[in-house]
UniProtKB/TrEMBL annotation:
A UniProt-annotated Pfam family: HxlR
InterPro entries on file: HTH_HxlR, WH-like_DNA-bd_sf, WH_DNA-bd_sf
Protein name: Transcriptional regulator, HxlR family
Keywords: DNA-binding, Transcription, Transcription regulation
Keyword RNA-binding carried by entry: no
Amino acid sequence: MENEVEVYKAGCKITCGENLAAVEDALYVISGKWKLKIIIVLQEMGNIRFNELQRLIPGISARVLSNELKDLELNGFVKRVVHAEMTPVVVEYISTDYSRTLKNVIMSLSDWGKNHKKNIREDVFEK
């Protein structure tokens, strides 16, 4: 019986370690103050130009937005489309199909955030 418990604990440690590593990988790609906000706006708005994107995300500087978009493009979440045939040249950003695989995660985080805020407010007003 004691041996079975040790085997179970060892299996749990492996599973736990794999889950921690997977979450760490996911957070590495989408963490930070701005990345999820950018992804959400792109998913909601479709094709969007840089300045419009910056206006829709309060507080983000042009430099930070540019760097975040480059990171998101490298990781396959954003596609940069250059319309060279237009004068002046127009650059748009589009969320990719891969980016849309985060939709359920984003919706779950949104729901959790709404519930959390509600719980905090209820706790504050009860005291």
